[in-house]
Amino acid sequence: MPEAMDKTGASAPDKGIFGTKPRNHAARLRAVVLGIAVIAGAVGVAFYAGRGKAPPAEGAGHQHGAAAGADAAQPVMLTSEQARRIGVTYAAVERSALAQEIRTVAQVTFDETRVRAVTLKFDGWIDRLFVDYTGRDVRAGEPLVSTYAPMLLSAEEELAIASRLARDVAGTDAAAAANARSLLTAARQRLLNWDVPAAEVERVERTGEAQKSLMIRAPYSGVVVDKLVLQGQRVMAGDPLFRIADLSVVWVEGEVFERDLALVHVGEAVDVELQALPGVTRRGRIVFLQPTVNNETRTVRVRVELENASGALKPGMYATIHIRSAGGAPVLHVPRSAMLSTGRRDLVFVQRPDGMLEPRDVVRGIATDERVEVKSGLRMGETVVASATFLVDAESNLGSMLGGMAGMPGMDMSAPGGGAAGTPPPSAAEDHSKHDMPGMDMSGAKAVTPQTPATKSPAKRPSPKPPTSAPAMDHAMHDMPGMEMPPTASTPTKASGKAKTTSPVKPKAKPDTMPAMPGMKHPNG
Fold first, then answer.
1. Structure pTM?
2. Where are the alpha helices (DSSP H) in 145-256?
3. Using CB atoms within 10 A of its CB, is residue 242 exposed (0-12), middle (13-18) or buried (19+)?
4. Which one is predicted more confidently, 170 or 61?
């Protein structure tokens, strides 16, 4: 196609989409470089705008250390009505001597020094059993069993022979008389070594007759706590037949924690109460402290001795030992309910002159049932919270926690209904024109009144008319890959621009509620 000619006869430049085409290669190259520069500049602006603002300086933003360090309790202000509602009472710090008392559960047991066993020093058989049940009271010298012992019978016969021989040679040769007396002495001593009663030995010497059975009598008075033989049973030398305990004196044994050992001393008078004898307090003394600490319970056994002439105290009874120590020097102390122990520290709430309840760390000392010593942290005459300390501490910790959160981004800790001084109240309608996201151009967008999305019309019903307040929007370019939009009641065509009317689609038995995603095959499609 021939070039157009201007008035001077020169060819005119071609007109393109972006204006006049350059006539030479250099002008065309400059245009390309300029376009690339413009595109690169736009991309750079969009990139830096998308990064947002620079992170805040350290210490000016969200500090977790501030919130973590807010666990320290803060002063609390309570009105009289609030204090009455949660049950807060007050008490003064006092100075006096504290008399401590240790209570421990104990049990009555035998006095081990008054328990003895009845045994034989020779082999034999039990011919007859006179004490035939456990728990029977016996008196000293009372018959217990009758035994037959061949060795004992032989020894008595030897004593009888030696006794006759000594009488026969008494007036003859002096050497023979001396030998006979030595034999008599040896036979007598053998029986005595077997604990045969001296009266029985004298009878054998006088009569010259040995008995088949020997009566074993109780060596002392007491209660049979163990009966270990039956009638007709064979016993060996050293086997115990009975265990007899004297219950005129009993022991009461309990456990004391190692932290209380400084208040327990041997010889100290204590009070003992028994569950079986309510209202009766018995007085005794500590006679023994175990020299070792139990590794499992961290306690030390303490033993109290009590008189039991009436026999009212029986081994196995439960008792309570009260160990009271005399008060020492005067010390500062507060009610036990006033001190709150957190595991790492002990604190009390002190009422200041302005009415604020100030938490204060203290060092505790000895404690009684009602009072606890304060070694440091308080002064004489100060007023402390005596009850509901836990609730006051919870209120204090809540205030400190909220104070630690005040510096966190987005946390407005001002009081409701009023901001800080100089801060204007928020307006009813806020302009969001400056809140555009980076890379989005909203300059040409028109305000569209939000509409409530219409629900899908059931079959055989006319579709609802579109709202007239806003123009209909074309969603033809909004389809997601792999999604097939169902035909609407009126779909414009590109060729004619006319609306093609289609009949409404009847719902299926199982409506398709999940559109097909890329790469997924719908079971109904």
1. 0.54
2. 150-168, 174-193, 198-207
3. buried
4. 170
